[in-house]
């Protein structure tokens, strides 16, 4: 994934705030910035190119910003911006709404409407992640999305939680995504945003079937990932937890080319395989690693591991440091 990094650290102190203001104009949207720390400003930005959009992680000292009608007339990309507050407090006034946001909250704002914003952090720098994309690519009517502009979206459950997790994952581990993943990441982000908006407004019927299926698949897979350590986890329990029939769950996974049981087994094996060679777990007994990932019987774990990777867990642990062990293909 194409990444551009910017930092004030290599600039003369007197030039830093002006330079940062120019960076935010070129990478985000034009605003008027001000800061009580302008004389000794510190900031960094990392911009990830998603083709039809971008994700920017910013760390900076407290600021205020204003997007005026004049700036909108001069330049308006017709974007939505979705912000995840990671550290500090933020506020936004737009569309006659005035809202404060805390760490962990999501907020949505509109490049085509004037706004005023502020960001602060007691004794340190603000950190937030901003996803930016054209309004036209959001798979929901604009009138619905606009109802959540400048409102606090708590990201502690449901689709908002998945959306916040995706932003954190992409921003902290961009090296996990290659050039071929760019379009897929943007699609998942937009589907999760649409699902979040639709559920917050009780307008799930506005999602098309493909959006609903994709969002349901993401939610189910996140649930499975969270419960892999429970050896009692079964496809039936997953279906019941999401108020769907077992047949509906099977259809979701058929679209992924697998079955619910096979997906659970594969995720457990992949988690165990990573832990077997992780430096932090080098002294952890193999049966403990297996139990952590939901394998209650060591012999069964050994058989499943050998079937998947062609070697036993012990052989994998002993040889992985000296070479790559390939996954066995059926």
TrEMBL record:
UniProt keyword annotation of Transcription present: yes
UniProt keyword annotations, A-Z: DNA-binding, Transcription, Transcription regulation
SUPFAM superfamilies: Homeodomain-like (SSF46689)
Domain HTH araC/xylS-type: 218-319
Name under which the protein is recorded: AraC family transcriptional regulator
PROSITE patterns in the record: HTH_ARAC_FAMILY_1, HTH_ARAC_FAMILY_2
InterPro entries, per the entry: AraC-bd_2 (IPR035418), AraC_XylS_family_regulators (IPR050204), Homeodomain-like_sf (IPR009057), HTH_AraC (IPR018060), HTH_AraC-typ_CS (IPR018062), Tscrpt_reg_AraC-type_HTH (IPR020449)
Stretches that traverse the bilayer: none
Pfam families: AraC_binding_2, HTH_18
GO MF entries: DNA-binding transcription factor activity; sequence-specific DNA binding
